[in-house]
Amino acid sequence: MPSGKVKLFGIINTFVYSVLLIACIIFLKCFLANGSHPINLWGWIYIDSLSIFFLLITTVVSFAASVYSIGYIQAEVEEGKISTRKAFAYFQLFNLFSLTMLIVPLLNNLALVWIAIEMTTLISAFLVGFHNTKESVEAAWKYIIICSVGITFALLGIIFFYYTSSKDAGVKSLEWASMLSGAGMFDPKIIRLALIFILVGYGTKAGLAPMHNWLPDAHSQALSPISGLLSGVLIKISLYAILRFVMLANPSVGYAYSAKFFILFGLVSVVIAGAFILVQKDLKRLLAYSSVENIGLVSLGLGFGPFGGIFAGLLQAFNHAVTKALMFFCAGEAVRSYRSNNMNQMQGMIKLMPFAGTAMFLGFFALVGMPPFSIFISKLSILISAFEGKYYFAAALTLIAIALAFTGLLYHVSRIVLGKPPQGITAKAEPLSSKIAFIFLGIFILGFGLRIPQAFFDLLLNCQQLILGK
User: What pTM was computed for the model?
Assistant: First the structure.
């Protein structure tokens, strides 16, 4: 399969994802128009506002990653980094990875959700170690081991939930909708213990500190489109699983119990990430620690939930997904041009690659939460919910961590984008597919910063009410 056929296959692949994205948007509008009533099909599929929100994140970022993959994989083949046969294998793994993440929000059975999330680990591990270098293989194994240990904790949590569901509520099923009907009769002591296992287990896959160790290594070695999916979608899908169990726990222990852990993990994540961002040398590891910071902010928003924090946290999850995908795609162009992940060897990107360099510079301002970009709105909303809930210490610590992250990202990104290119590094043609991916994501980043579409606003409100059990 010559490189021209690789490109053609990538275009066909993108067309499929465009159809999925359009179908998701149409379904969202129809769902809201019909009163947002949950859909339960055959006991296997359950769709509510929360499902659609995470489906939307998955389809948006997967489409962008499929577009970016066209030029990225073609360049990998032309430069001799991978064979045409391996390029075909990449698209197969890409589709399997996206498919497993698309399935998770649709499943009603919590055991199947667990299996699907574990499958995302096994499939994406091949994409982390795709180049078969010593570093990439080590990163893949570390990723598998840490996430598999974490998800074992989640399995224990599921067992505890099932135990009290069958014993105290008489629901001998792992169907989420059935368990929810008897959630008020669950044993609070067992639920408190089970929820800790769920938060630690799925929190590992979500990249929450201190269970985040797999994330920087995996991101630094994965192909750039896959890094965008790992950061933009995978860690959000794991968060989805946590929220489903929080909704089951609420009638027995109240949302305040979960909120305490969300705030704890959120604070640890933003503080650790803020510190590590300052000292990074690897561009993709830098962005990985930024993901830890942002998932920490999402967790904090969920912790400040009753005061509008859930709305803000979910908005932050979406905004981060599209912004971080953009930044990883820009990083992919930088690594390809400079032939290194080391930021000390990167300067003058805007002169070598004007489009990608400009996108990275603007993406930096979006990522740190500068107006008029979308993360500004969600970060500000999270902080407002903290003050409204009188979480003054948490708000102060979060502001310090945000300042640290801003300082580190400003220092590193400005050095990469500005200045004089190193000797021997020449400008390379920027693929049209990369430009299209940047523009597509930029529409969400800027558009949602100027005005949140009413349908999306209503969807987030519905999600907040569901999570709070209203």
Answer: 0.95
Segments in 34-133 forming alpha helices (H): 49-78, 84-103, 110-128
DSSP assignments along 407-448, one per residue: HHHHHHHHHHHSSPPPTT----PPPHHHHHHHHHHHHHHHHH
Buried b (16+ CB within 10 A) or exposed e, 113-125: bbebbbbbbebbb
Report the Cα 204 to chain-centroid distance in Å. 13
pLDDT tens, 295-331? 999 999 999 987 789 999 999 999 999 999 999 999 9
pLDDT of 325 reads 96
A 10 A CB-CB count for 149 gives: 14
Confirm if 24 and 56 have CB atoms less than 8 A apart: yes
Q: What is the DSSP letter of 40?
A: E
Distance, CA of 109 to CA of 2 (rounded, Å): 43
The set of residues, in sequence order, having a beta carbon less than 8 Å from that of 368 and lying 6+ positions away, is 375, 402, 405, 406, 409, 410
What SS3 state is found at 47?
Answer: strand
Report phi then psi at 373, rounded to 5: -85, 160
What would the two tokens of residue 374 be?
Answer: 């979308």
Q: Supply the DSSP string of 111-174, one letter for each residue.
A: HHHHHHHHHHHHHHHHHHTTT--HHHHHHHHHHHHHHHHHHHHHHHHHHHHHHHHHHHS-----
**Rounded Cα distance, 439 and 446, in Å:** 10
Judged against a pLDDT cut of 50, whether residue 461 lies above it is answered with yes
Determine the Cα–Cα distance for residues 294 and 405; give it in Å rounded to an integer.
10
User: Strand, helix or coil at 41?
Assistant: strand
Q: Which residue has the higher pLDDT, 425 or 163?
A: 163
The pair of three-digit structure tokens given for residue 227, joined into one six-digit string: 């890094």
pLDDT computed for residue 3 by the predictor: 60
**Can you give the three-state secondary structure of 147-159, one letter per residue?**
HHHHHHHHHHHHH
- Pairwise CA distance, residues 99 & 119, whole Å: 10
Write out the two tokens for 248.
């089951």
Q: How far, in Å, CA of 205 to CA of 30, rounded?
A: 32
CB neighbours of 251 closer than 8 A, spacing ≥ 6? 183, 184, 186, 469
> Residue type for 325, please?
A
Per-domain residue ranges for the chain?
Answer: 110-468
> Helix axis angle, 49-78 relative to 3-33, nearest 10°?
170
Structure tokens belonging to residue 260: 């305490």
Give the DSSP letter of residue 175.
B
- Summarised one tens digit per residue, pLDDT across range 437-459 is 999 999 999 999 999 999 999 99
Contact status, residue 187 vs residue 168, Cβ threshold 8 Å: yes
